[in-house]
Here is the input.
Amino acid sequence: MTNERSIMIVDGMALLFRAYYATSYSGYIMKTSTGMPTNAVYGFIKYFWDAIQTFQPTHVVCCWDMGSHTFRNEQYTEYKANRQEPPEALVPQFDLVKKAVESFDVPNVGVTGYEADDCIGTLAKRYAQDMRVKILTGDHDQLQLVDERIDVILMKRGQSNYAVHTPLTLLEEKGLTPAQFIDLKGLMGDSSDNYPGVKGIGEKTALKLLHQYGSIEGILENIEHLAPGIRKKIEQDIDMLHLSRDLARIRCDVPMTCVLDDCTWTMKTDKVLGLFDELEFERLKKLIAV
Here is the structure.
């Protein structure tokens, strides 16, 4: 591995939810002897530790949502309105997982009114001036942050299975630049975040338009050349097109403080093992104490 300084920015929510569902599908929820559910925290630590060992960052920070209401709800009241409440067994693990992250001497950061994505984007752009940035997530929305010094590492199914995205891989695999991922969402919307884009335009049409005209601005400048049906859909939904693109755009100017020196990876094994004792993670002890 290179000795180049790098920071891994962990998308805490993406890892935690992935860990919860990966370990609860059978209906069994791991709990301590006192009845505290711990399955999501257990799985989170396994993912977290594997990524640290695989990518060997010199600095690590973990970003979190700070409640469900953000500035995007002010822009569009239906934003994420389709989301269900988190499973009952996951709720007490939100605080517990932050305690686990702290045991590794890794900062937990988040800003009320913004999503974790915005904090990730802000820190990524800030730290990319001085070092390589690696964003660990399962969220494809983060692909818009990729640049020459920012890699987005998408977790795939199974342990130690990652897709590392750079500007080159995005062009090769998706045919898009990072900025075009924002325009793609503006055109086709995002059902998981509950904003519609242009009604009647799906991914196939949106990709075709972007490949041909480059951006939403390029499409609008050439709107008279579009097929009549597509032109009509865009003209009827022009306001929602612009709103959807704005909702999709990760903010990289969140007012937040995170001191880089505080993110230096300096795990103290005894401290981590103490938390594992508390949470009764006997099998994880062998993983860390190697």
Summary: DSSP finds 13 helices and six strands in the chain. Residues 174 and 203 are 12 Å apart (CA to CA).
